[in-house]
Amino acid sequence: MLAARDLTKQYHSGETLLSALDGVSFDIPSGAYVAIVGPSGSGKTTLLGLLAGLDTPTRGSVLLDGTDLAVLTEDARARLRGQKVGFVFQSFQLLPTLTALENVAVPLELRGDPRPESTARDALARVGLTLRATHFPAQLSGGEQQRVAIARAFANQPRVLFADEPTGNLDAASGRLVIELLESLNRESGSTVVLVTHDPALAGRASRIIRLEDGRLASDAATDHPRQPSPPPAATGA
C-alpha cells in the first residue's frame, strides 16, 4: 500500500543544509497497522507528510497504492488524497461553526457522495456518537471531538489513514478509547493505518513499529501485541 524509497528531506537554515530525513526506505502492506516512533526532531511528522503527499521529498519517492506521488501535480495529489487517504490530527481540525454531523458530511459532499448526510450519520454511529450529531465542537469533550474526526476520516472508506499523535490532547481514558476505535475500524474496514506517536505503550498496540532517530531509520520490527476485538464505544463517552 505504501512504499518509501530513499526518502530524504533537506532544508536550508541560512547557509546550513539540514536533513529532516535521510535515506529512509520501507514497505507497508495493505491492511497493516504501523506505528512510527522516535524522539522529538527525529523526522516522524516530516515522514508522515511525505507519505501522505502533503510535502515533496528532496530525494527519493513514495508510492501510494501503486501511484508514484512524485509524478503528480499538487492538484493531482490532492485528488488522490481525497479518494484514498484519511487523516486524524492531534488538534482534531474540526470546523467550529459546523455540527458533528456537518463536519463529517463536508468531505463526503466534496467527494460527490450521493447521500452525504446518511453516510455521515452511519460514520458517527460507528464511533458511538449518534446522540451528539447535532452538537458543535465546543459542546463536545476532547475525546468526542477526536471521535468525530475519526468518523470523518473513515467515512470516505480510505485505503490509508494517517494519524499524527491522535491522543496527544486527550486524557488517558479518552485516548484509550480513540486507539481502540482506530484498531477496530482498521480490522473492520481493512484500511491501512499509519500512526505517529511518542508514547511507547500506544506504539506497542500496533502490529509493527518503525523507529526514527536523527532522520534515519533506526529499526523496523513486528510486535507481539495481541489484536483482540475492542468493545463497542459508549453512546456519548469521554
What structural keywords apply?
238 residues, 10 strands, 4-stranded antiparallel sheet, 6-stranded mixed sheet, disordered C terminus, alpha/beta, 28% strand, 33% helix, single chain
Q: What oligomeric assembly is this protein in?
A: single chain
**Helix coverage percent of residues?**
25-40%
**Order of helices and strands, N to C?**
EEEHEEHEHHHEHEHEE
- End-to-end Cα distance, whole Å, is 33 Å
Q: Count of DSSP helices?
A: 7
What does this structure look like?
- 33% of the residues lie in helices and 28% in strands.
- The protein is globular, with a radius of gyration of 18 Å.
- The model is unreliable at 226-238 (pLDDT under 50).
- The chain is of the alpha/beta class and 238 residues long.
Q: Concise description?
A:
The protein has helices at 44-51, 74-84, 100-111, 116-126, 142-155, 172-189, 200-203, and strands at residues 2-13, 16-28, 33-37, 59-64, 67-68, 85-89, 160-164, 192-196, 208-213, 216-222. The chain has 238 residues and is α/β, with parallel strands linked by helices.
